[in-house]
Amino acid sequence: MFKGMHPIFWAGLAIMYGLTFIFMLWEILTPTSTYHVTIFGVPAPFIYNNIFMLYIVSLFLGWLWYYVPEQAERKRREAGATTGERERRA
Questions:
Q1: What's this model's pTM, rounded to 2 decimal places?
Q2: From 16, 36, 40, 88, which residue has the greatest number of CB atoms within 10 Å?
C-alpha cells in the first residue's frame, strides 16, 4: 500500500505529528491551564493550533508534498533524456 510513497511524505508526517506531540506535551506539562499562557494577549492554543498548525504547517506540507516529487520527476526525465541522447549519438 505504501510501497511507492516518496520519502518526503514520511518526512512530512514526522513534521506534522512531531509538532502535534510537542504541543500536546506542552499542554500536559503546563502546571496551569494553557489558556493562561498568552502570546500578545491571545491564549497560546489559539495561536499554535489555529494559525500555526492549521495554516502555516498545512500549507507548507501541501507545497512540500507537491513540489519535491515534481522536482524529482523532472530531474529523472531530464537525466533520462540526456542518457537517451547520448545513446543515439553513439
A1: 0.67
A2: 16
